[in-house]
Write a structure and sequence with these properties.
Belongs to the TPP enzyme family. The N and C termini lie far apart (75 Å). This protein is globular. It is of the alpha/beta class. Helix content is 39%, strand content 16%. The strands form 4 sheets. A 6-stranded parallel beta sheet has the order 3-2-4-5-7-6, sandwiched between helices. Helix 1 runs parallel beside helix 6, helix 8 runs parallel beside helix 10 and helix 9 packs antiparallel against helix 11. Helix 8 links the parallel strand 9 and strand 10.
Length: 577
Amino acid sequence: MSTKAADQLVSVLMNWNVKHVFGLPGDSIDTTVDALRRNQDKIEFVQVRHEEVAALSAAANAKLTGGVGVCLAIGGPGAIHMLNGLYDAKMDHVPVLALLGQVTTKDINEGYFQEVNTPKLFDDVAVFNKTISASDNLGKIVDSAIRAAMTKKGVAVLTIPDDLPDQKVSNEYVDSAAAFKLSTPQVDDGQLAEVISMLKQAQKPLALIGKGGEHAGPVLQQFIETNNIPFILTMPAKGTIADDHANSLGNVGKLGTKPAYEAMKSTDLLLMIGTNYPYTPYLPDAGQAKCVQIDTCPENLGSRYAVDVAIDGDAGAVVSQLNAKGALRSDDRFLKACQKDMDSWNKWMSEKRNLNTSPASPEAVFARIDETAPKDAVYSIDVGTSTSWGARFLHVQPTQKYSISAWLGTMGCGLPSAIAGAESYPERKNISVSGDGAFAMVMQDFVTAVKYKLPIIQVVINNQKLAFIEYEQQSAGQLNYEIDLEDMDYAKFAEAAGGVGYTARSNAEFNEALAQAYKETDKPVLINVYVKDNAPLPGKIVGEEAMGYTKYGTHYLENYWKIPSMPPLKDIMRQFF
């Protein structure tokens, strides 16, 4: 029995448990889109308004579900638009399949309308990058592409001339989805013995847990509790263990806490579990600590800090074997010292959480979200100061999900992620927070949430400027330039798009708007909250940043003959000492 190649393609997607395809139809991809139409009861095609949003949504879908995200676009301009979202997937190491249209086979290499050499264009972003040359092997190559994306945790790109999917194929392809299973290396007993010995000897052990440990939260929690170990979560791993756990020191780095920084600079044994944390100035000083690193990607081992034991393995499997040995250490002096430090930090943060101002304080806005969000909420946090406030004031729980653009750091990731989250988890409340600069980059797709009746809550932190860039310029000793943004009424925009819009100019008004937003069941809500330009100071101001701020102040005085507006002195002093 013959079938169209496009139907075989869709069959492979279904067997890989693909539930959504994000994209825009168009002439060079329409035969594939037509097959999705024929199977719309099995796979939902989510029509977006910009291909970048399709790719960002597919990347977020992979981050949130652990499966493969799929996006689709015409060749030429549509494919080019997808690159940003696909780089987000590449750099955050999540599996995404991009289906790109192409001119028909007879027109390839003829300089036809919208013909672009997509294999060459996508060469750097993709772990699998093929052009389909015959209809008979379309299903097989789609299967291979998904398998490569899942195995290598990256982007697979298929360029498909539009005449091929419409051709009939007689062969019935049996894909590998049902049999696919990732395996991890067995842990060497000698390495395990070394780790145990180092744990028993350490006086100040510290765990840095990354995305690679996300699937093993309970196992990791048992390990740190049994052995009295304080821990730090990388930003994309928030919620692996509850952010408000007694052993938690929050995040580390520019967006992290001062106790996390100080613990890093004190530890004598660093356990890097499922992370390739890139910000080496925030790791222990060279030669300060012994280091154990666990990662399923061997090339990551030792790439950031000199390791004494490098374990090529799954974080959950390795730590489970350590847990089987029982308590390996009982000394809790370092843990208690870190907890005391964290108590002081939390008292300071509680002052910020309780600010009651007009315009609203971003710290209090995030605190209110944290206090009211359901226990199974899905957070999509954009790039900019939103990332900073989310790191500090959202105490993410293991029952919640947290999505950001961690390594690419692309502005505009919040709304596409919320769309993906609402499609994948319609029964859960999806909350996106973006600055006005980030939201404006993708705001047209708020109407996508309207079209599909997705009751997401989109909070726009509106300070009429690129606030994170403001502080980056200052910390580099530069005068601020071209960071101010023209204001617009985002609430009216939301209403014009068919959603619900609220404007809040104080913490009290935001609290009321948020309470109303939780009640919506079939419309997206946008809360345009005007906020004070509060500085998201680093957890610890390091020497280079201090010199930069001093240089900025001097330049400001020289150019404007007045002292620049700076964060409160008590806040700056807390970051120094």
